[in-house]
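Dear H.,

Thanks for agreeing to be a second pair of eyes. The structure we're designing against is below in token form, covering all 207 positions.
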């Protein structure tokens, strides 16, 4: 079913170039509706959503949504399907995932400027898993605006509440399927830091 959302969207039906390969997710079309407990937020460490999708394809993994540098929200897979984005099977079963375009490393700042997106915010003094991250690129304001629209949409239509864990490391409630809301990938595993510098709670407060 179509779900209304207050932002620009392209999906795999009207734009087949965004379609995730069926080998990279588990189809649940025609089965009981999934009980989606949380959305896992990633940064893609790629220069664009097009590049990110290509990388996902090569790695035989997938993500339901991508958020490009311009603020365009892209749906690559039906939310009813189980994408391989979070790691463990039980985490994928309980979640949807979004890849936010952000190359992370400071050396890519000039790329964004040359492409006409302007400079990205620079993030310093950010800690994940008790360790300080290197100075890195943050999200554009237009990306944050789209994320807020997505949060509102998921709360209204999928019963994913506007809440996120307070800790900036692994959260056992998230790992054990006892949490509903929005999480970072680092809440699931110590091997990930994304999307560490992004304050989900601060965005909730602007809704």
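And this is the sequence the design step returned. I haven't edited it by hand at all.
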């Amino acid at each position: 079913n179509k779900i209304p959302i207050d932002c620009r969207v392209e999906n795999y039906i009207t734009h087949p170039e965004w379609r995730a390969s069926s080998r990279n997710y588990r189809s649940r079309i025609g089965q009981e509706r999934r009980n989606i407990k949380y959305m896992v937020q990633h940064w893609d460490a790629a220069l664009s959503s097009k590049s990110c999708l290509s990388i996902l394809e090569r790695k035989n993994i997938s993500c339901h949504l991508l958020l490009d540098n311009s603020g365009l929200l892209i749906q690559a897979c039906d939310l009813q399907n189980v994408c391989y984005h979070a790691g463990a099977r039980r985490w994928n079963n309980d979640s949807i995932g979004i890849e936010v375009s952000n190359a992370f490393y400071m050396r890519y700042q000039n790329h964004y400027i040359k492409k006409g997106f302007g400079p990205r915010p620079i993030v310093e003094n950010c800690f994940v898993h008790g360790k300080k991250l290197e100075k890195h690129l943050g999200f554009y304001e237009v990306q944050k605006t789209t994320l807020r629209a997505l949060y509102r949409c998921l709360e209204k239509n999928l019963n994913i509440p506007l809440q996120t864990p307070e800790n900036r490391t692994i959260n056992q409630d998230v790992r054990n399927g006892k949490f509903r809301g929005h999480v970072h990938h680092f809440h699931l595993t110590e091997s990930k830091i994304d999307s560490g510098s992004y304050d989900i709670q601060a965005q909730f407060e602007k809704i």
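Two observations from my side: The chain has a mean pLDDT of 97. The chain has six helices and twelve strands.

Warmly,
E.
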